[in-house]
Amino acid sequence: MKHFFYTTALLFGASGLLFLAPTAASAQDTTPKYSNEFLNIGVGGRALGMGKVQVSLAQDATAGYWNPAGLLNQKAKYDAVLMHSELFSGIVKNDYAAFSMPLDDKSAIGISALRLGVDDIADTRNLINEYGYIQYDQIRYFSVADYAVLLSYARRIGNIEGLKVGANAKIVYRNVGDFANAWGFGIDAGVQYDKNDWHFGLMARDITTTVNAWTINSEKLNPVPGDPTVIPANSTEVTLPRFVLGAARLVKLPGEFTALAAVDLELTTDGQRNTLVSSKLASIDPRAGLEVGFKNLVFLRGGVSNFQKIKAFTNKEEWKMQPSLGVGVALSGLRLDLALSQLAIEKLGGRTQTNNLIVSLGYGIK
C-alpha cells in the first residue's frame, strides 16, 4: 500500500509543478473556463450508467479515455468498444470508438477516437439576393464538430503487485465549417492500484495544459452588407489541468451476486464552478455509482453526479444532482451496455441539461 501512496504523491507533485504557473489568478482571468469540454462528457454505457465513476475501475478499451493505466486490467487480449448517443433530440451526435491490446505481460497500448458534432446547419446569409428576392439555392450547409484522438500507453511498475501507470498523447481538432478550425495537443497521466477487492485510481488530464490554436477564415466570415458583426482574429484557447481521484470496492453477495461501489472526486483548476465544493482557485465535483452483477453476465447500474445549485421557481436556490441508470449484458466476449443519463453540457454562463440514451457495444477476443 505504501508504494501506491508514494507513486500517487509523485504524480500529484510533478503535475502540480507543471500547472502552478497557468493556474495563477492572472492566468485564470484570461483562460476560458470550459475549454474542450466535449472531452468531459464521458464514454461507454457502463461508465455513464454509473455516474461516470471509472477512474479506479476502467478495465477495457475505454480505459484509454478514463484512465490509461486500466488498459492492463482488460480480460481479453484484444478489446474494442463502439458508442453512439444523441443529445438535444438528435441534434448533437456523439460517437466514440476505441481499441486496445497488450504489448507484453507488463505493458499495453490503446487508441481512442471521439467526435461530437452538429451537422447540416443552414447558412442563410445569401438567402435574399440584391433585388430582394428569396433564392433557396443560395442556402449553404455546414457542420460544427469537435474531434479527438488519444494514443494510450500503460505499464506495470517494477514488481509492485497491483500498481500500474499510464499516459495519453491527445490530439484535438475543432472545426466550424469553412469558417474556422483549431488544432490542439495535450498529455494525460493516470495511475491505478488494486489490493484484494479494493481499487484506487488517479487521473490527471491536460497536465501540460492543452492549447488549441484557432485559425479564422475571414473571407468566409464576411457578413452581409450593413451587418455590424466584428470578425474575430486568430487566437489560442488553453485547457487547464483537472484531476480525478477515485476509489471502489467489490463485495460478493449470496447467490453469485456481486456489488461494486465507487466514488470519484473531480478537481478542476480553471476557476470557480457551480459544484458542491467551489472556490476561485479550484472546484471539486463528487460523483458516486453502484453496479450489481449476477454471475458476471447481467448488470444493473446507477449513479449520481453533477451536484449543482439551481434557482427554483420559488426563487430559492436548491442543490440538484443528475441521476443515471444503466443495464449491461456480457456473453462470450460480447458486451452490450445501455445507459439513461441526464448529461450537463457546460458552456460559458451556465449549464444545459439533456436526457440522453447511450448505447455502447464492446467485444473482447481472448
Automatic annotation (TrEMBL):
Signal peptide range: 1-27
UniProtKB keywords: Signal
Keyword Signal annotated: yes
Protein name: PorV/PorQ family protein
Organism: Hymenobacter volaticus
